[in-house]
Amino acid sequence: MKFLRYSFVAIFLCITTVSFAQRGQRALDRADRAFELQQFNQAATLYHRAFTRVRGDELRNQILFQIAESYRLSGQNNRALPHYRRLIRARHYEIEPRVLLHLAELVRFRDDHEEAVEMLERFLELVPGDDRAALLLESSRNAENWLNNPTRHIVEPVRRLNSRANDFSPRFLDEHERILVFTSSREGATGRRKDDWTGQRFTDLFISNQNQQGVWSTPRLLETESILNTPANEADAFFINNGNTVFFTFCANLRRTQSGCRIFTSNFDGVSWSEPRYVHLSPDSVADFVHPWVSSDGRMIIFASNMEGSFGYLDLWMATRYSSNEDFGPPQNLGPNINTSGREAWPFLKDSLLYFASTGHPGLGGYDIFVSERTEGGWGVPENLGAPMNSSADDFGIVFARCGTRGFFSSNRNAGRAITRSDDDIWSFVLPAMNFSISGVVRDDETMQLLQNAMVEIVGSDGLSVRVLTNNRGFFRFDETQIRQNVTYQLLVTHSGYFDDEIIVTTVGLNNGVDFVRDFSLTPLPRGEVMLPEILYAVGRWELREQFQDSLMGLIELMEQNPRLIIELGSHTDNRPIAMTNDTLSQRRAQSVVDFLITRGIHPGRLEARGYGDRAPRVFSEDFSKTVDGVTLDIPAGSVLTSHFINALPTRPLQEIAHSLNRRTEFRILRDDFIPPAEGGEPISLDNLVRMARAEDHMRIPFRINPPTGLPEFEVVINGASFTFVYDENACQNLIGTEDAMRLLRTGRINRNDFRDGAGSFDEEGDILPNSVITLREMRIGRQTLNRVTVTVTPELPAPVILTSETMRLLGEFEIDRVERVLQLR
User: Fold this and answer.
1) How far apart are CA 425 and CA 164, in angstroms?
2) Tens digits of per-residue pLDDT, 574-597?
3) Percent of the chain beyond pLDDT 90?
4) Count of CB atoms within 10 A of residue 138's CB?
5) Interior CA angle at 801 toward 798 and 806, to 5°?
6) Within 10 A of 265 (CB to CB), how many other CB atoms are there?
7) What is the signed CA dihedral for 408, 409, 410, 414, rounded to 10 degrees?
8) Does the pLDDT of residue 317 top 90, yes or no?
9) C-alpha span between 553 and 556 (Å, rounded)
10) Which of 17, 77, 614, 775 is 20–30 Å from 376 (CA)?
11) How big, in percent rounded to 5, are the helix, strand and coil portions of the chain?
12) With bands split at pLDDT 50, 70 and 90, how would you rate the model's confidence at 763?
């Protein structure tokens, strides 16, 4: 009986073990099937169930790896990380080295590049030559340099648009860029099911409007009739035709006959959207086609796909067609400069620059945003946009405003509203203007007192020439409307009674704005005569000897550095009689110095020659000593070399030394108001120039309100033709309507040389192409004139011309009085 009881227990345990193992295998099979279908969130749940029903460390570690992979591929990095670490402790990387590789990818998301380097080096020991690991290792080693050298971009999450779910792929719907459409899995999305990939709701297209104050409205569904938004996934909307045509990614459900993800298009008729039509791009029925970017004329599409011929998991492709009513031709892969063994996605083409997200180029972690320039030879080597546009998280789905300095992108970095780091948010970016200014004070170098009404003139290598006067605190400033990037400036400071001073300031090569502070200390002009170095003449002669011309180099330099000085060259003789009078001889000697200075480029109007003869003996204000041929003459302070003084000297050698000291040439500053005359004209007085510069001209420029925009509208004369313009402080670039540009062209006020692209700015009929850039020679607003203003040709503007705040600031500081409807220039 005892034997039977033990036999029964053994049989029961055997049956139980077999049944347990069978249930574990069935659960594992179901999990593997979900993983193959890329239902990663569902797969993770099933793998957890299978893990509790199997025995054996090796099999359980394999299931742990699949759990970690499911979480990683569904974007749940925080859940994936502990499972990879558990596998490291179990040394499962000896069987499956990818544990090391994928753990390195996840710790990079946390900016732990030191641990990432360790994991990658261990992986490459096990799998030498792996390209993906080598790329990640290079990126991790370079990450610190990228993070320590950020660009000037300012990025921040758009909290009005973001939810606690995934929000990504923003795109502008309208040409005014005040309507944004994006993808979201938030509450309120169509359908109640959750996506087995992400564990969140299926995504829909949402819309938000920006008001005049720049505030975004609460997002709402783009449409609610289940035409565009369905219980399946819709994403990555891209609009053309002023928002009336949309291309978007659709991942199929029971409603659609297509499998996987495809690109669809729909048109808006003013009331509703048409039934979406499948955009045929390839006969490949297995591949996915996602993330469309479409040219404004609808004839070119760039998209991402894993179709046959791809370099990696997801590549960028391009297809074209002759008209928007035809199918696209065979897609062309963008090639190895763009595509890698990783993933390339979310393209955005701006002019000749292709922006896209990639996991296969060196980056900070996850998806990074790159840019590549299109040339005749193909696509250039992509450049990482760097921090802060990129982070250790996923950064993708960029869109630019027309001005090119601001826009939006998607990221699952910290600081958004998402519950975890792995949920996506919409971020804004702006590249602020690189502002420069130059300011300072001017003071007396001897008394240290601040100098009012010093004239500060700035001349730039870009043609800028502006003069300002210091205020009662000696202060001057040239602001960001005057100081530009990559320009070298010369500043010259002048003040009556002082030597000039000048400096050079350059913004060439600077990558960030700088407020330069440059103070000046002016040296007062000397009072009385200034002795020149010794100049000796032959007895009774006046010609300037060549060996003494070098004695005048210091004076020439002084005159060149102070171009407003007017000086007197005075020559003196001793009191001994000669054949001609001493007055005549001294006058000729002074004139010989003047003549020499003129030959060296000093303007004759700045020089006066005067011979004093022997009437002004030399005066010594300090003790003086001179030795000649071993004989030394000591002269005490206060002595005057009169005949009486010289004749009283005890020896003839001493008297000869004294006579030689009386024979001298000096200069004296007469005035400092010389202005070079215009051809055939007289010099201009500095006093008059100062009065002109100080004249206050408070200009009042009237305006009216432009009805469509509610913005100020002014009269303007462009190259001699009258127009109106709207001042839009939110505009990114100056604009001119197509018809108005054609008017200037037809009347000969502009020609092809004024266009940035020359003849390439016109179609075959001679009409100006949209987005052509024109440099207008002259624009007169009131009594102010702006030169060389750049505008972009745009159809259907609310006024002939739209000017930005940057251009308006070239007029100077101003205020807009909406009550009196005038622009007041200060």
Assistant:
1) 9
2) 877 765 677 788 888 888 888 888
3) 37
4) 12
5) 115
6) 20
7) -80
8) yes
9) 5
10) 775
11) 25, 30, 45
12) confident
Decide: pTM greater than 0.70: no
Per-residue tokens: 665? 């040439």
Give the residue with greater pLDDT, 657 vs 549: 657
User: How many Å apart are CA 754 and CA 758, to the nearest integer?
Assistant: 7
What separation in angstroms does the CA of 170 have from each of 166, 303, 399, 707, 736? 12, 16, 7, 30, 28
Pick from 366, 360, 333, 332: nearest CA to 344: 360
How far apart, in whole angstroms, are the C-alpha atoms of residue 10 and residue 24? 21
Of 10-24, 260-274, 507-521, the one with minimum mean pLDDT is: 10-24
Distance of CA 598 to the CA centre of its chain: 49
Interstrand relation of 566-572 and 607-613 (parallel, antiparallel or unpaired): parallel
- Give the model's pLDDT for residue 21: 57
Distances (CA, A) of 399 to 348, 405, 418, 468: 7, 11, 21, 43
Q: What is the pLDDT of residue 541?
A: 76
In degrees and rounded to multiples of 5, residue 629 shows phi and psi of: 50, 45
Coil/strand/helix, residue 243: coil
Region 331-359: mean pLDDT is 95
Mean pLDDT, range 772-796, rounded to an integer:
88
pLDDT at 30 over 70: yes
Location of structure tokens 């179901």:
30
pLDDT surpassing 90 at residue 464: no
- Contact predicate 155/388, CB 8 Å: yes
What is the rounded distance in angstroms from the CA atom of residue 281 to the CA atom of residue 306? 12
Q: Give the distance, in angstroms, between the CA of residue 826 and the centroid of all CA atoms in the same chain.
A: 30
- Sheet containing strand 245-251, strands side by side: 233-240, 245-251, 261-267, 277-278
Strand pairing category for 436-444 and 455-460: unpaired
Please give the DSSP secondary-structure letter assigned to residue 734. -
Positive or negative torsion for Cα 325, 329, 335, 340: positive
**What one-character DSSP code corresponds to residue 335?**
-
Asked whether residue 610 carries a pLDDT value surpassing 90, the answer given is no
CA distance 701 to 821: 9
- Can you tell me which residue has the tokens 């700015």? 761
Residue 115: enclosing H or E segment and its boundaries? Answer: helix 113-126
Report DSSP state, residue 39: -
The token pair that represents 624 in the structure block = 């003086």
Handedness of CA 130, 135, 138, 139 (dihedral sign): negative
Separation CA 113–CA 364 (nearest Å): 9
In this structure, what are the phi and psi dihedrals at residue 160, rounded to the nearest 5 degrees? Answer: -70, -20
Residue 298 in tokens: 């609808």
Helix (H) or strand (E) run with residue 663 in it? none
Q: Which residue is associated with the tokens 């840019």?
A: 371
Question: Among 228, 188, 225, 175, which Cα is nearest to 205's?
Answer: 228
Contact 229, 189 (CB under 8 A): yes
- Distance, in Å, from the CA atom of 93 to the CA atom of 115, rounded to the nearest integer, reads 16
